[in-house]
């Protein structure tokens, strides 16, 4: 009598669910924030179109930054910081006009002169770009452009879906 | 005079990033930008790529603005019943 030698075969673990695509992640977050804006009673008035549009725009940028894991990318960190800073300033300085602080320009002048010109304009457009070296700037820009283009696609499809 | 020379030498040493690395990143960027991607030439100059990137980012920002307006308008335009339907679908 051969002893049974049960080979314990544990059932293979279920395959992990496929990580959602960038578009899905952005879409989920944006739709949620959009729903909040649409159902907010404060903004539901007729005259609130402009205000709502601004809230929607803010929601777009913050959902985009959060969808990539808010602190994982330099641009998303900088973008979230800017949005939060702006929100605080709007709360506290509502009566005063925004002065548009222009600071910290001297430091960037003496940066390494690379052969690639035109990076200055790019630095201003990419959140957090001023503090990066060229290599990081190009890397962050690629990712930023991808996410921004995806955000636009998401907004486009929602608008197309619901416009009569 | 000597300080200028040493500064330029210093700048060369600091940018330890290879040209190839930068060229790679630039070409990666190039592939993302529809303006340049549609053209047949693979070799767009780096400054052209950066320029087009800036234009592209600016146009994307403008689209976000327009779409935000449009989405905001959607709620105002549709009558209350439709708006309620839209809201319930999003919840």
TrEMBL record, chain A:
Residues 1-23 are annotated as: Disordered. The keyword Cytoplasm does not apply. Residues 9-20 have a biased composition (Pro residues). The keyword Transcription applies. It holds the Pfam family IBH1_N. Residues 22-85 form the IBH1-like N-terminal domain. Keywords: Transcription, Transcription regulation. InterPro entries: IBH1-like, IBH1_N. This is Transcription factor IBH1-like.
UniProtKB/TrEMBL annotation, chain B:
GO terms for cellular component: nucleus. GO terms for biological process: regulation of DNA-templated transcription; regulation of growth. PROSITE patterns: BHLH. It comes from the Eukaryota. Keywords: Growth regulation, Nucleus, Transcription, Transcription regulation. Residues 6-60 form the BHLH domain. InterPro entries: bHLH_dom, HLH_DNA-bd_sf, PRE. One of its GO terms (molecular function) is protein dimerization activity. Its main location: nucleus. It is found in: Nucleus. The keyword Transcription applies. This is Transcription factor PRE3-like.
